User: Fold these one by one.
Assistant:
Number 1:
Amino acid sequence: MALFLMTDPGHFEVCYQINPWMKPTAWRADRDGCLAAAKAASGGLKAALKAAGARVEMVEAARGLPDLVFPANAAVVLDGKVLLARFRHPERQGEEAIFRSAFCKLTKRGVVQEVMDLPEGLFHEGAGDAIWDLGRQLFWAGYGPRSSRGSLAVVQGYFGQEVVPLELASERYYHLDTCFCPLSGGEVLYYPPAFTETALAEIRARVPEELRIEATDEDAAAFCVNAVNLDRTIIMAKAPPALRARLEQRGYQLVEVDLSPFILSGGAAYCMTLRLDRTSVPQASAIAAE
Ligand code: ARG
């Protein structure tokens, strides 16, 4: 059974701006309404994960650390090994200690096996910038706006897996998970304008044309590439009807959740979760879940 980490949204807010989507003014205009909507949205996502057969572990909210609701940025997790993130922006660096202690507790309970820190001087923002592709047996790794190029060698060495570096070309698509999503059938849903030419060549060399699903400007801006895929189910923010139709044609079942309060912070379904039971080799019990 798939296992995800999520964070209680009790102290979520949009009060600073470290990516171009963040709208502190819109949040301030209706704090109570926005927080109530965020709690409902987070609950909706959790319910959708459970309905898809997953279990969810929660991290407690912490005042003053609103982006704690995006645990995809906390760490890269594979085969029970946890590589803790180091955040680029001071606004998020306070999250590091909280996630370290959450992972230490998970280690004691045997949910994960070991936890490692990133060497000094490097930035890496977790599973948001290192996406495991089970079928291809590699990490797709974004770098540039947040994770530093040098951190990718650490990901490669620690997990002993191939890492394909993908340079992100725009501040709007600052984490790989905003513009790239491998699916269980081998397809990749991605947004080409977010990548440099070299990165696009890397993607095209590994993913044949019939498996490349190009997101439109509208799909990407609706944060629909930032999706959670469990077998044939894809959980995402409210989707443009044409994207829904394209994915359904390929045999996927789409579950949409209104995540607009989190889109005000530049995040959606994928980054509000972190998969804890991901393994490099398909597990008998995990095959259905992948
Ligand atoms: N406000 C957060 C930030 O800018 C949003 C993070 C979204 N996470 C993600 N993996 N896309 O850091």
Note: The first helix runs from residue 24 to 29.
Number 2:
Amino acid sequence: MTVLDGKETAKQIRKELAEKISAEKQRSGRVPGLAVILVGSDAASEIYVNSKAKACFEIGMKSVIEKKDVSLSQSELFALIEKYNHDETIHGILVQLPLPKGLNEQDVISAISPDKDVDGFHPVNTGKLVNGEDTLVPCTPAGIHELLLRYKIPTSGKHAVVVGRSNIVGKPIANILMQKKDGANCAVTVVHSAVKNIGDYTRNADILIAAIGKADFITGDMVKDGACVIDVGINRVEVAWLPKGYKVTGDVKYDEVSAKVSYITPVPGGVGPMTIAMLLSNTWKAFSKEIVS
Ligand code: NDP
């Protein structure tokens, strides 16, 4: 059984990006830039935003954080996005989700230039992904695909089952896995909360993607021997005796499932670190499109 080490893989990706950025800086004096916009004071969002800025800094990328009060109106937010849409030193724009009540997420995402949409949520990029065109792909599914590629996991002709159909994980990873390309080319089944007896589907998966948001949902009896299991879930489970009072766990019951499968991602240290690495990678991609054109 191989543990798919997202932490180490993400470190390698960041190192590769740092080298490319350093070379480009020497060549042209230019570096990629990421603008992160945070509206309101959600504690978890603040941690995510700061860690994204730190990750940029560490690889020599420019980053700008715009922290705005919860009272920011939608038109003020549009004006801020528009400023960065036209800023030549900024190649990626990310609006941290969820947004406070009163701001329409889909309208806000659609205001970002598709060329700078490093979260890959803009309808133009969603459409291109469905069409199989090269585009900016949402970071978590892109990270899963990168893990499959880098660990050379056989995927072509295999049956992939995705549990969850959100726009940020389930749908895009299903779209990636059905494409005719490396690390994909699968037969794909997507299941969700309306589907009864989920185990009847998951037991047939060569590649199982769990993106549900329910701790320990996937148990040992729900997986096929030798499968590859990717656990996207991040769940806080109360553990009174721990100093923090909780632990972070995935959607997969790790001890039971890891005993049966060939590959598995741990939580933490699996898909999570890959998500930020792919955000950096998307920002590089948006920048490098510009330097070649
Ligand atoms: P959502 O809540 O948006 O989607 C969850 C999906 O799971 C839905 O499609 C839902 O079905 C389905 N689901 C819920 N309960 C069941 C059930 N009992 N049986 C079958 N399907 C069910 O979550 P996200 O996709 O945003 O995230 C999923 C998990 O991944 C979360 O734990 C989240 O924290 C984590 N995550 C981790 C990231 C990382 O970087 N590692 C990044 C993004 C998310 P329905 O559509 O019918 O409601």
Note: The chain has two domains: 28-115, 139-272.
